[in-house]
Write a structure and sequence with these properties.
The protein is of the alpha/beta class and about 425 residues long. It has two domains: about 260 residues, TIM Barrel; about 130 residues, Beta-Lactamase (2-Layer Sandwich). The protein contains 15 helices and 17 strands. The strands form two sheets. The chain has an eight-stranded mixed beta barrel, surrounded by five helices. Helix 8 links the parallel strand 8 and strand 9.
Length: about 425
C-alpha cells in the first residue's frame, strides 16, 4: 500500500489490509511482517497512592522463525519508506489492542508507544485509529498515546500532534522527559496529561544528593503545569524510595513488575508498594527524629545567643558558642524591615564565609532579606525559633538551613539568624 493510498483510504479499507496480516491462536493475537512474528507484552504501571496497577504499557515483541528476538528499533528499520512504516505501526496497534482487550478489566489505561515517524502524521492518514478502537470496544479515554518529544524537532508539529490525539479523546504522555534535549518550554506549550521521566533521572538521583534533592521540585513544577508524573525504569528499592519521596504519581519498572500478559496479576507490584510505604514511613520517622534532635541543639544555642544580644552583648561574643558548633557557618542581625545590621559573624572553621568565588556576595551589610521565609516567619511568630528547609546560600553557594528568632534590643525588634551548612 502506498503512502498516497494510505492518505486516501478509509479506516475500514486499511483495517481489512492489516487484518490479512493478523494471526489468532493459542490465546494470542499476533502479526506477520517480513518474516517476523509480531507480538505483545504488557508492563504494569502503578499509582503509588492507590497502591495498585492503573495501566499497562504495550511493548512490541518481535521474533524470527528460529525464535531470535528483534528490538523494536530493528523491526521499524526494516520498513521501506513511509507507507510501510505506517502499515507496521498500525499492525502493532492492532495486535496490542486485541491482546489487551482479551484480558480487559474495564478500567485500566492502555499505554501505546507509536512510531515517532508515524505519530506526527496521524491526521494525514484517515480514521483508522478511531475505527480500530470502535471495533474493539475500547473507549479513547482509556488510551494513553506516548510521544517521544525529543524526536520531534518542529514545535508546531509537536503541538498539532498532541492536539490531534487529545481531540480523539485520548490521553497524551510525553515520553523520556529529561533525556537528550527535553525542555520545559515544550511541556508548557503542549500540556500533556502525563510526563514520563527518563530512567536516567532516577539512576542519577540514586547516586547524587544534589539531583535527589532537586527531583521533588522538578516533579512539583511538572504538577504545576497541569500534568501527572510517571517515573519509568525503576529497578531497585533505593530508586523506588526516591520516586515515592519525590512525589511521583505513577511508577513503572522491573522492581514493580516485568512485562508479561495483560491478565497477569498485579498483586506482586501492589505488595511491593505496600512494603515500600512501610519502609518509607519507618525511614522517614527515623530521619525526622535524628533531624529534630540535631536541630534542637542549635535552636537552644540560638536562644542563648539571642538572650545575650537582648541584654546588650555584641553579636560576636553572644554567638561564639553557637558558631563553635560543627555545622554553624555565620550569624547576622536583621532590623524589623529586613535590612541587615552590620556584617556577618562567621565561624572560625568555616570556609564558606571566605570563599573567594562568592566574595561579591559574602558581605551582607545593608542587604535586605525581607522576602526570605526565615525573616517573615520569625516576625510572624515572635520569640519562636524558626527553621527553614535546605536552600542555596547566596553568601557561599552551598546548601544551608537558617534558624531565626526575634528579640528586642534597645526597645526595637530585631531578628537573629544563623546559617547551618546542610550540604
Amino acid at each position: 500500500m502506498t503512502a498516497a493510498a494510505l492518505g486516501r483510504d478509509s479506516g475500514q479499507c486499511c483495517y481489512h489490509a492489516i487484518h490479512a496480516s493478523v494471526r489468532r491462536g493459542a490465546g494470542e493475537i499476533s502479526g506477520a511482517f517480513k518474516g517476523l512474528h509480531i507480538g505483545s507484552a504488557f508492563q504494569p504501571i502503578y499509582s503509588l497512592a492507590h497502591r495498585r496497577a492503573v495501566g499497562y504499557e504495550a511493548l512490541l515483541r518481535a521474533t524470527a522463525g528460529a525464535g531470535t528476538g528483534f528490538p523494536p528499533q530493528a523491526v521499524f528499520a526494516l520498513t521501506a519508506g513511509e507507507a510501510e512504516a505506517v502499515f507496521l505501526d498500525r499492525l502493532c496497534r492492532t495486535v496490542h489492542l486485541g491482546n489487551f482487550m482479551a484480558a480487559d478489566d474495564g478500567k485500566s489505561w492502555l499505554f501505546l508507544n507509536v512510531s515517532p515517524q508515524v505519530v506526527v502524521r496521524g491526521p494525514d492518514y484517515g480514521s483508522f485509529f478511531l475505527e480500530l478502537l470502535a471495533r474493539n470496544g475500547m473507549p479513547a479515554a482509556r488510551v494513553v498515546v506516548e510521544i517521544l518529544e525529543g524526536q520531534i524537532d518542529d514545535d508546531q508539529r509537536l503541538a498539532s500532534t498532541v492536539a490531534y490525539y487529545k481531540d480523539l479523546g485520548c490521553l497524551v504522555a510525553i515520553d523520556d522527559f529529561g533525556a537528550g534535549h527535553s525542555n520545559f518550554d515544550r511541556i508548557w506549550k503542549v500540556s500533556p496529561h502525563i510526563v514520563k521521566f527518563d530512567r536516567s533521572m532516577i539512576t542519577q538521583a540514586a547516586t547524587s544528593r544534589t539531583i535527589r534533592r532537586a527531583l521533588p521540585s522538578l516533579v512539583s513544577l511538572i504538577h504545576e503545569t497541569g500534568s501527572l508524573t510517571l517515573m519509568e525504569g525503576i529497578e531497585t528499592g533505593v530508586e523506588a524510595l526516591i520516586a515515592l519521596d519525590s512525589g511521583f504519581d505513577l511508577v513503572q519498572g522491573y522492581y514493580f513488575g516485568r512485562p508479561g500478559k495483560a491478565a497477569a496479576s498485579p498483586e506482586p507490584g501492589s505488595r511491593a508498594i505496600a512494603d515500600l510505604h512501610d519502609c518509607y514511613d519507618s525511614q522517614a520517622a527515623t530521619e525526622a527524629n535524628d533531624y529534630r534532635q540535631e536541630i534542637a541543639r542549635y535552636e537552644e544555642r540560638l536562644r542563648q545567643a539571642a538572650a545575650l544580644v537582648a541584654a546588650g552583648a555584641g553579636l560576636a561574643a553572644a554567638a561564639a558558642p553557637l558558631l563553635a558548633s560543627p555545622r554553624a557557618e555565620r550569624c547576622y542581625l536583621l532590623a524589623s524591615d529586613g535590612r541587615q545590621i552590620g556584617g556577618n559573624v562567621c565561624a572560625p572553621a568555616s570556609q564558606a564565609g571566605s570563599n573567594p568565588r562568592f566574595k561579591p556576595l559574602a558581605d551582607g551589610r545593608g542587604a535586605v532579606w525581607s522576602r526570605r521565609h526565615y525573616f517573615r516567619r520569625a516576625v510572624n511568630h515572635p520569640g519562636e525559633v524558626q527553621t527553614t528547609r535546605p536552600y542555596l546560600s547566596i553568601a557561599a553557594g552551598n546548601m544551608c538551613i537558617t534558624l531565626s528568632v526575634t528579640l528586642h534590643r534597645e526597645n526595637r525588634l530585631v531578628v537573629l539568624c544563623c546559617d547551618l551548612d546542610w550540604g
